[in-house]
Description:
This protein is α+β, with helices and mostly antiparallel strands. It has four helices and five strands. The longest helix is centred in the N-terminal third of the chain and has 24 residues, at 16-39. The termini are far apart.
Amino acid sequence: MMMRDDNDPELNGKYLGTITKDFVKIAETLKEASYQIRSRKFSDHPIFPICKSEQPIGQLLISNSELKVDWNYYITYLDEFIQRQLIDENAVEDFKKAYKDPDEYCCLFVVDQDFTNFVYIPYPND
């Protein structure tokens, strides 16, 4: 799986609008969940897979049927991506280098028909 520091240009038009609209509503929940994963030493690399339908990675955290959001938000961390071979063991160090500060950025894993990639969204400033 390829990873890049910058967000994919394909993301900008089609996805960024709906993701950003959702993110404003749920950023605090995701930030707190990220903090809990790190403070309990489960992982230093929380990842939030998002999908408009169901998907198998992680545990459902926020459902688009319970909140008025476009996406379902799941929670997991780097180890599951390695176990499921979504990140090759040889690419783990590259992933860790590209992973942005989890106190400032949310690591989303966008899963959609035409687009599957990691996206970093900055948390709103308090």
